[in-house]
Amino acid sequence: MRILCLLVSLLGTNFVTAAQTETLKPAYDFSLSREAKIKLAESAAPPEISGQATIYILDRTGYAKVREGSNGFTCFVDRQDPANLEPTCFDAEGSSTTLPSRIFAEEQRAQGKSEDEIKAAIEAGYKSGKFKAPAKPGIVYMMSDEGFLRIPGTNKMVPLPAHLMFYAPYAQDKDIGSPPPAANMPHLIRAGQPDAVIIVIPREKSAHQ
Question: Which residues form the domain of 62?
Answer without folding.
Answer: 11-166
